[in-house]
Fold this sequence. Notes:
3 helices; mainly alpha
Amino acid sequence: xxxxxxxxxxxxxxxxxxxxxxxxxxxxxxxxxxxxxxxxxxxxxxxxxxxxxxxxxxxxxxxxxxxxxx
Length: 70
């Protein structure tokens, strides 16, 4: 599977496929970004796209090398 171009994160289907593999230890965290529609309506995609990009980057930079962002 190919990660999303905007965030370089995999989708839920990728995670679901990994979690069913034997000997895989998986955990997840759900992050809810509030007011994203309002930000998009106000600032359009140029600015509002920075939120998921920066969030994914921050999570990746603070994760272990064996962790996968999806």
